[in-house]
Amino acid sequence: VAISFYFEDTPLCFITSHLAARAERLELRRQNYYKIIRDMELGRKSFDILAQFHHVFFFGDLNYRVELPFEQVVQLVEKKDWQPLLDEDQLGKELRKRRVLNGFQEGEIAWPPTYRMLRYQEAFGNKRGQAPSWTDRILWRSFPALAMEEGGKEKRQQGIRLDSYRGCAQAFGSDHRPVAATFTFSRG
Predict the structure, then answer these.
(1) According to the model, what pLDDT value does residue 159 have?
(2) 108 DSSP assignment
(3) Rounded to an integer, what is the distance from CA 133 to the centroid of its chain?
(4) Looking at the whole model, is its pTM more than 0.85?
(5) CA-to-CA distance for 158 and 173, rounded, in angstroms?
(6) Closest residue by Cα to residue 88 from 104, 76, 100
(7) Within a 10 A sphere around the Cβ of 17, how many other Cβ atoms?
């Protein structure tokens, strides 16, 4: 599902998706993403969807998993030691290898995994031995000319700035916890 619109003079596109589930379906998730991008018909149908909007947001249950055993993930979460988990995060690996979501970026993850939760508790469930993971994600990309501008010693985002990115651990009712991001838009 996607929507596009103009915010003042800025064309925006928001794509939400539910990619293939299960840790072993990494290749199928990659295929899901490319099919969505290839077949999505928004804006000018003869143009690549990623080339016609100033900013494109891609989010939803992307189903990428942490490739560590359940108990090890829980131990690292208890210590709030995110880096070993992020090192084994399938989406992070895919992004670093440029296999999927090329040009997209994601805010810093500094909260516990949001999937494989007990529905009405702030605790992980061990259904089918699935490791807790950050399956629900928010990524975005901007036209290269809008992405980053060197300004003396600092870099600043042109047109869009991520203000916050977080998991909502106390939003009960599902084995997924939502994630939220806030952005500030500015005119070129």
Answers:
(1) 75
(2) P
(3) 12
(4) yes
(5) 38
(6) 76
(7) 17
